[in-house]
Amino acid sequence: MRLKSKSALVALVAVATSAGTAKAASIVAWGEDIFGDVSNAPAGNDFVAITGNLGYNGYALRSDGSIAAWGSDLHQQVSGAPTATGFTAIAATNHNAFALKADGSIVAWGNDDTYGEISGTPTASGFVAIAGGSYTGYALKSDGSIVAWGRNAFGEKSNTPIETDFTQIAGGNFNGLALRTDGSLAVWGDDTYKIVSEAPTDKVYKAVTGDDFYGLALKTDGSIKVWGDHPSALSHDAYHLISDAPTETGFTSLVAGYNTAYALAPDGSIVGWGYDSGSGAVTDVPKGTGFTAVAASTFTGYALIAPEPTLVAPLLIGAIGLIGMRRRRCPS
User: Fold this and answer.
1) If you average pLDDT over residues 311-317, what whole number do you get?
2) Is 192 exposed, middle or buried (CB count within 10 Å of its CB: 0-12, 13-18, 19+)?
3) Are 169 and 210 in contact (CB under 8 A)?
4) Beta strand residue intervals within 32-145, DSSP E
5) From the CB of residue 248, how many other CB atoms can be counted at a distance below 10 Å?
6) Is the CB of residue 230 less than 8 Å from the CB of residue 237?
7) Domain range spanning residue 236?
8) Distance CA 247, CA 314 (A)
9) What is the CATH number of the domain that holds 160?
10) Whole-angstrom Cα distance, residue 101 to residue 273?
11) What is the helix (H) or strand (E) element at residue 9, kind and residue range?
């Protein structure tokens, strides 16, 4: 089992891309370990957010707003990570990553390719969320509008919706996805695998994400909707992301990797399904409860879990007090 827990207390932590009100936690990694994706996951129990990318990297945000990066460094995805503190969110694309400052400005690092993922990063401040697709970045303004930059081969940039009623953004392979205030979805970009044309039209969603051939969304009741297809050489739903999706309700978060998905249950347990390829991305999903977030990279999963509270000190104090009471009752 390719599972690595970096917690000194043998505790697991779930993954999130934005710090929010998350409690500090430690990192668990599982699956493919080609570039140290698993074995180089950082130690410590002060992480509040975590994400993967469409390559072989993991990124985590510490409670002081500093960033940890690990995995492949072919394009300085690791060595180029900012060393400052005070960041509030992280996101990543294939060969680069983005971080959101407290003032809402964005820092980008890694490979600029020919698409401008770095050089095209918005220079304004006031953004409230960031996301990465395949060679594309997305940012959400405080007024609910979306800014996109980077690759535009399938309209993943130029077809970005112009409305101002969005509350969440996500990137797929060559797609952008967003959630509106009324619970409906907007999906744009490549429709080769029907991610755009078969996107659900009902208004019952609270989160959305995407991967190579699929779109995934979380309904307000915590149930999961998956749609999309596969290249013509493969049968429909060949990776079983649709047919194997959990049918229960109550899930609290949803992420997608390379034709692999993870959902977080109310008790903090993780459900994984989809394409495993012998990597352990699905078969090695950690057991147990108490995870607070989950994230995915290519054939690798990440999770955060807060250290279990220790009762040693309170019990010890109580025991000392009891001993003291007993001593006072003893005759002199």
Assistant:
1) 46
2) middle
3) no
4) 47-52, 57-62, 67-71, 87-92, 96-101, 106-110, 127-132, 136-141
5) 12
6) yes
7) 3-329
8) 42
9) 2.130.10.30
10) 34
11) none
The answer, yes or no, to whether residue 312 has pLDDT greater than 70, is no
Long-range contacts (CB closer than 8 Å, 24 or more residues apart) made by 262-265: 262/294, 262/295, 262/296, 262/301, 263/218, 263/224, 263/294, 264/14, 264/291, 264/292, 264/293, 264/294, 265/289
Contacts of 110 (CB under 8 A, 6+ apart): 75, 76, 77, 80, 93, 95, 96, 97, 117, 118
Quote the number of domains for the chain: 1
Task: Give φ, ψ of 56 to 5 degrees.
Answer: -130, 60
Amino acid at site 90 = I
The model's pLDDT over 114-153, given as tens digits with 9 standing for 90+, comes to: 999 999 999 999 999 999 999 999 999 999 999 999 999 9
Amino acid occupying residue 314: P
Joined together, the tokens standing for residue 202 give 């009902």
Residue pair 132/97 in contact (Cβ under 8 Å)? The answer is yes
pTM of the model: 0.87
